[in-house]
Design a protein that fits this description.
The protein is of the alpha+beta class and 63 residues long. The chain has one helix at 37-50; strands at residues 2-7, 11-17, 23-30. This is Xylulose kinase. InterPro entries: ATPase_NBD, FGGY_N.
Length: 63
């Protein structure tokens, strides 16, 4: 399994891929542009654990 994380100024996106490169789960959480570092880290943690195998996006695409 592989995890990709995008920490942006307006949100956190995470994707979980299996060994074949297929999307297992993905999740996006919006953050405030001026959020503190701890708020962004908390959003990242929630994003990574939120994947439930169904994902937010179509297979093969990140959020």
């Amino acid at each position: 399994m592989y995890i990709g994380i995008d920490l942006g100024t307006s949100g956190v996106k995470a994707i979980l891929l299996n060994e074949q490169g297929e999307v297992v789960a993905s999740h996006t959480e919006k953050t405030h542009r001026l959020a503190s570092a701890s708020a962004v880290v908390g959003a990242r943690s929630r994003t990574v654990v939120a994947g439930d195998g169904h994902g937010d996006e179509s297979p093969g695409r990140a959020a």
